[in-house]
Known about the structure:
Elements: H1 7-15, H2 24-32, E1 36-40, H3 47-57, E2 61-65, H4 69-81, E3 86-89, H5 95-106, E4 112-115, H6 123-130, E5 134-139, H7 162-165, E6 170-175, H8 180-190, E7 196-200, E8 208-214, H9 218-226, E9 233-237, H10 241-253, E10 258-261, H11 267-279, E11 284-287, E12 300-305, H12 312-319, E13 329-335, H13 337-348, H14 354-372, H15 377-384, H16 396-399, E14 404-406, H17 408-420, H18 427-435, H19 440-445, H20 461-473, E15 477-480, E16 486-489, H21 493-498, E17 504-506, H22 518-524, H23 531-551, H24 555-558, H25 561-570, H26 575-579, H27 586-604
Parallel strand pairs: 1-6, 1-7, 2-4, 2-5, 3-4, 5-6, 8-13, 9-11, 9-12, 10-11, 12-13
Antiparallel strand pairs: 14-17, 15-16
The chain binds adenosine-5'-diphosphate and zinc ion.
Amino acid sequence: MPDHPDPETALHEIFGFRQFRPGQRAIVESLLRGENLLAVMPTGGGKSLCYQLPAVLKDGLSLVVSPLIALMDNQVAQLRLLGIEAAAVHSGTDRGERGRIWQSIKDGVLKLLYLSPELLGSERLQAALDRLPLSQIIVDEVHCLSQWGHDFRPDYRNLGQLPARYPDACIAGFTATADVATRADIESQLFAHRPGRVFVQGFDRPNISLKVLAKERADHQLVELIEPFRGQQGIVYRLSRKDTESTAAALRDAGFPAVAYHAGLDSGTRRQLLDRFLSEPDLVVVATIAFGMGIDKPDIRFVVHVDLPSNLEAYYQEIGRAGRDGLPAEAILLYGFDDIRRRRWLIDSGNADEAVKRVEHRRLDALLSFTETSGCRKQTLLGYFGEAAGPCGNCDRCLNPPALVEAGDLARTLLGVIDATGRRFGQAHLIDILRGEATEKVATLGHDGLAAFGAAADMDKRVLRGAVRQLYASGVVEVDIAGHGALRPGRKAAEVLSGEAAIALDLSAPPTKARRGRKAAGSTSAAPVEPAAMELLAALKALRLEIAREIDKPAYIVFSDATLADMAQKRPLDTEAFLAVDGVGQTKCGLYAERFIARIGEFAD
Ligand code: ADP
Ligand code: ZN
């Protein structure tokens, strides 16, 4: 490896990146000074580079503890393609391979050693580690260390002893999800013997645009929504296993390569699906949240929630799997009133004690304020995580601001009907009454005789459903879960009835077709590319897949989408120009320049 005097040069020459992403430089420099640190960065923020680059520049070996085998193996493959000596030891590493790895450590060649946390509990391994020239210990997904975190892993307890055992190595934890309590807990464990610094990078992922739509006919809507993403990769989340199957089938009927993924599948099948997801660039996975951690793929272009997630933390983490390469990606959430009822029911019917249930209901409330907000989605989301931000200019609310109208009369009429019918009916029946629909149920119960029967006859059913949802989110009505979802007056009802509180609602009809704003459509494809460049890009992707098959690794390990898009734009025809492409370092240039340049040459005339 050539001598790399400074981080900037190493960034260009080894990783091929033009510049550091926000926060990366400070962390790299801190590690180069040998400081302990905890770094909280958003998913896709580029955490791995923060420790990989110092690992290359520093003398000695860097230990990286990471919870997932698939993740470790991919990182190692990626590093090797960059010309960096790295290896992973975990339950799947055979004896021969382990022998070779220890030899390369003894020879002082290996720069990064990835280890699974349970191995750290082994005395033999610890004894072996004692003799190594460790320069830094990196703990990835460090929130797993804390009981306060949402993902505590008992194996991570073994890490607590590391700082005392290796006082000369600096220790650094990385995570994308640590609230204040979790963070304090992690600090007290990591920095028990030597103080450390904390770096918190903002939560914003500006390249992910947010959209929330009323759910009408889920599968049908989904197909329309992801039509612009044909040929690209995405994740669709559903709540139940059965629904993942039926939605995947609906997507296949519409010509999308789609598979269902859930915890009910045996581990071999799940493993196989994960492999397909990593290697097939257009596969759509319809999954329950069992499809979660460990999906570390940079070029996921869309994440759709067809059912309401449990809270904003979960939502944020799930959409965070999109667009890790920094290119535009879209997060779409579909939901209806039934989703809310289902979520409330899931909380109430669980085994948790009352205090926990109350917290869960409040977290669901926060999610509903997000789905019903008339302001910028991004601003609402970041605000929930304590981060102040201006309007994003890129969400459905910013692109098509809702026109709010005074709706006090409508709210009072609805409350009147709820009371007049004994607080015993759900939204569907109440809406039938308001619209003056003489259904059998209405007739049987004599509800067509109510004064308010037909009071909103001119209003679209979907508009009324939207109104009920908004009234629910603002506390004017609530749902009686035990009473099969009957509506009753909420905490704000009295103020609205007395006219004390004004109530403004968005009463515009939701688009029948999943309409896409021009701006949003344009921003979804990788960089603005003209048709000729699109063709070249397709050719480059085909070549990438060819190479990926040859080396038996996921395609993005060869080059990311961002790199190919930049390449299609710059059309390098010699190695110097090839090196100027973002994401092309010296090793990959040596490996692949010739083949890619030849392919680009075919397009030059
Ligand atoms: P995280 O672990 O924070 O979710 P990764 O480390 O996987 O994110 O990085 C996400 C993507 O960003 C990867 O494809 C990585 O190669 C890319 N990346 C990291 N740093 C930079 C940079 N400085 N410039 C361009 N791309 C980068
Ligand atoms: Zn916005």
